[in-house]
Amino acid sequence: MKVDVYGQQVFTENDVCKILMTNPNLEDYGIFLVDSTSAIDGLVSPYSEPTVDIDEFHRINQNTWLMPTEYKTLDIAKHLLDLCDTDHKLQRVGEELLLFQERDLFDLLRYLVYLVDVMRKNNIIWGVGRGSSVASYVLYLIGIHRIDSMYYDLDVREFLR
Fold first, then answer.
1. Which of 11, 63, 111, 130 is buried most deeply by CB count within 10 Å?
2. Residue 78 structural domain
3. 81 and 143 fall within a common domain
4. What is the pTM of this model?
5. CA 96 – CA 81 distance, rounded (Å)
6. Do 24 and 42 belong together in one domain?
7. CA angle 147, 64, 94 (to 5 degrees)
8. How many structural domains is the chain composed of?
9. pLDDT tens digits, residue range 91-140?
C-alpha cells in the first residue's frame, strides 16, 4: 500500500487479496483504489491520479463521507435532542446545533456518531478528551470525550471560534 500526493491509500492487488482473506465484506472498507490495470475483475476501480489540484481535490472530498447509509441519513438533531433528559440540556444542545449548522458541520457530526459506534463495537479505546473540544456538550453526548461541559460550565464558543 502506498499513499499518493493527495493522501489517498492506493493498494496493490496483493494488498486487496490479503484484506479480503481476512474479511471478505468489501462494504466494511469503503472504496479501494488499486494500482492495477485489471482492477481485480471489476471488484474495485483501477487507480488513476486525480486531474485537479490538491486544494480542489480536498474541497471535493470534504463532502464525501464513507459511512453506511443509516448514518448518512441520520437526523442528527433529533438523535442528539433525544439524548437530553432536561430542558437545560435541550436548550444547550439546541444552541450548539445551531452553531454546528451555521458552519455546515452536520455531516461531520453524523460521521462522529458512526466513528464512536465503530470504536465501541470493536472495543477500541480513545481518550477522555482534551483541548477546546471538551467545551462542546454535543461532542460529549456523541461520546467523543467524557467531559460534561455543562457540569463544568464550559462555553461552547471556546470550541467553535
1. 11
2. 69-158
3. yes
4. 0.66
5. 11
6. yes
7. 40
8. 2
9. 999 999 999 999 989 999 999 999 999 999 999 999 888 889 999 999 99
